[in-house]
Amino acid sequence: MATAASPMAQVRKQGLSRAALARRVGSLAIYALLSVGALGMMMPFLYSFSTSLKRNVFAFEFPPQLIPLHPTLQNYVEAWTSNNFQLYFWNSLIVATLTMLLSLVVASTQAYAFARLRFPGKNAVFMLYLITMMIPSTVMILPQFVLARTFGLLNSLPALVVVYVAGGIPFQTFMLRGFFESLPRELEESAYIDGANRFVIFSRIALPLAKPALGTLAIFSFLGAWDEFTWALTVINDVGKRTLPIAIRLFQGQHATQWGLVFAASMIAIVPVMVVFVAFQKYFVRGIAAGAVKG
Amino acid sequence: MSVDGVATHAHPSAPGFPAGRRPGPWHPSRQERQEALAALAFLLPGLIWFLLWTAYPLLKSFWMSFFHWQILGGSTFAGLAHYARAFADPVIRTALENTLLYAVLSVPGQILFGFLVAALLDSITKGKVFFRVLYYIPVISSWVVVSLIFMYLFHSEGLMNYVLVDLTHFLPRHVPWLSQRGTALLVIALLGTWKGIGWSMLLFLAALQGIPSEVVEAASTDGAGGWQIATRVKLPLLRPMLMFQVVMLTIGAFQAFIQFYIMTGGGPMNQTQVFLTYMYKQAFDFYDFGYASAISFLLAAVILAISVVQMRFFRQDYEY
């Protein structure tokens, strides 16, 4: 048969209808598009990661190599052991951890009051929170600086924590309130009728049920503090009190031409973030889908 | 999911749970008083924290913008002098232009690509999480690090010049991307777009998955194809989400600071200043806190005005 060699006939022989073939080709095209796009999105990271594995003389080699010809970990060793880098890493870790813990306490207690308790002025306070969510945080940075100075907090890690927690309060309260309201109230009501006080109800019943939302909040507040730059730049002058974003920025200033070193330091700072993100991405998605943090 | 609930009032009370109290004088019963006291205890730590470190600085900043502010005391009243100065300051004009350009160049791309990726991801089953993670990674990466990466890519000896000049001969000679106004804005907007696609994608994806399957099935039985369903059925339903993103991303673009501060520092000769880099310069290079406060309030006013206009423009109520 003359048509036996045509592709469609072969396909029919294999039991595939025209529609199924179209679907398969379509889905292949979708995966191809998504892969090309993802590669494009990852390219800046891949290329700078590659540079972090090159000796500095190869940072602007010609032609550029995506895969280093002579890979070395020397930049990582040098970044990690020089310029107080480990100290900065711990500073960041301490600040981010404290911010996360305090945010959890403050936001959950407030959100619970807004979701479950009646009190005068409730709507007014809540509106105040909503309004400040719309105002750029940088507007407050100068008075915050003056305030930190008044309290003798300039050049200190607590100054960072205090402002990071404060900055998160409106949004986190808003988000958690929504979550508490979505929980069934019967459990809490029956506990109340049984004579449990509100603090017990909050800590024993409501909080455990809110674990997923608290997880989301924990991750966001941790990463927010870990990445924050502007306030830290403003309030920290001491070499020993720097956090990673500040340190990396100055690293680039000091070693203007040592890109390998700069990116080794950068990778040390962002890889933990990526690991946390990949491990908990389910919570991220939930939080962002709830109208959460913007980039 | 109530994404656009941000701007609305608290929703109506659940049964048996009056939200807030009715207008009129408060005559609490003993139980009501107890409840209010408990609420106070729950509220107080966060409220004090918020009042001291957010509400007070906000008011104080407004106050400071009317003074020749001296950080060590001895400030003198300036009236509207700072605002008058801002309106006459050519750098403010440049900053406004640059900020607008940055918004115009970066917001549509984020939304367009975000939507495309979301639509593609919505149509596959295997590997969804994998791709979602990859596209979202730039969003969670620190602004400092990604700014440095883009500085390196667009270095005059860097990869982009190699690709555009040496490899493809698309451009005649190496471009000093970050040391001239036009190309610097372009590169920073590209960075902003790249970093924001994932956020937009995730929100669109959530919205797409929130569309009731009956709606899609009905269109499908009526003979609509995949493309028609996407553009005629889903897209109109995504309108509130689109509005939310346009507003949030524009606000975000107007608050751009780190990428400009690191990549150009506002230079050369103030040509790439945006509101916040200029505000920061006035505050911490010249210690002119009064003027800097006035600039930041002008920015807040601009942001507010733009959000109101955008919300008006997009307002159109949809019912599923």
Secondary-structure topology with pairs:
The complex is a heterodimer of chains A (295) and B (320).
Chain A: H1 7-13, H2 18-52, H3 74-81, H4 85-116, H5 122-134, H6 141-150, H7 157-182, H8 186-193, H9 198-209, H10 211-227, H11 230-235, H12 244-254, H13 259-279, H14 281-289
Helix pairs in contact in A: 2-13, 3-13, 4-7, 4-10, 5-7, 7-10, 8-9, 10-14, 12-13
Chain B: H1 30-64, E1 67-68, E2 76-77, H2 81-88, H3 90-122, H4 128-140, H5 143-153, H6 159-167, H7 181-209, H8 213-221, H9 226-237, H10 239-254, H11 258-263, H12 275-284, H13 289-314
Antiparallel strand pairs in B: 1-2
CATH topology of the largest domain in chain A, anyone? MetI-like fold
The succession of helices and strands of chain B, N to C, reads HEEHHHHHHHHHHHH
Main CATH class of the largest domain in chain A: Mainly Alpha
Assign the CATH architecture of the largest domain in chain A: Orthogonal Bundle
SSE order of chain A? HHHHHHHHHHHHHH
Low-confidence stretches of chain B: 1-20
The percentage of residues in β strands of chain A lies in: under 5%
Largest sheet of chain B: 2 strands, antiparallel
Identify the most extensive interface between protein chains: A-B, 100 and 113 residues
Kindly state the percentage of residues in helix of chain A: over 70%
CATH architecture annotation of the largest domain in chain B: Orthogonal Bundle
Oligomer: heterodimer
CATH superfamily of the largest domain in chain B: MetI-like
**Biggest sheet: strand arrangement of chain B:** 1-2
Shape of chain A: flat
Structural class of chain B, by secondary structure, is mainly alpha
Short précis:
The complex is a heterodimer of chains A (295) and B (320). Chain A has 295 residues and is mostly helical. Chain A is 73% helix and 0% strand.
Provide the descriptors you would attach to this structure in a database record.
heterodimer, A: 295 residues, mainly alpha, MetI-like fold, 2 domains, 14 helices, 0% strand, flat, B: 320 residues, two-stranded antiparallel ribbon, disordered N terminus
